[in-house]
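A further point concerns the way the authors explain their paired sequence and structure data. Each protein is reduced to its one-letter sequence and a matching series of backbone shape codes. An entry of this sort, consisting of the sequence and the corresponding backbone structure tokens, reads as follows:
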Amino acid sequence: MGYVEELRALIGHKCIILPGSAVIVENKDGLILMQQRKYPYGKWSLPGGLMELSESTIETAKRELLEETGLIIGELKLLGVYSGKDYLCTAANGDEWYVVTTVYMTKEFQGAPSVNDGESIAFKWVDPNCIPDGTVKTHRYMIRDYLKSQK
């Protein structure tokens, strides 16, 4: 059982704050990696997830990328930290949390993305100017800021 599951066993569905990390992985063609998730089903997002106890945000980013995509990533550059009223999440079971997401960018990775963690349906490389319909709203903000950082 992970940290979040242990915490939920103690507090139930109460709203909490959870830190996480996400990564914008860019390939040599300037495309970014998007993940189609099982929850919320079919939604597109950046790969990433919630922090475990004792992890740094960089360690979280690297662990989540490896778990979700099979990619080993190199140097990460900070894009930003995202939080606030737009970052309230509600699970189907009623759990509520505000997420504080540290977003990194990288062009350094080894391997090819593959579905192997039970959280993903598919991965695809997309033009960051043409992200898929059904992309999580908050991840749209992150990609918008990524595009601004590239100018």
User: Anything to note?
Assistant: The mean pLDDT is 94. The helical segments are 3-11, 57-69, 137-149. The two ends are 43 Å apart (CA to CA). The CA atoms of residues 90 and 96 lie 5 Å apart.
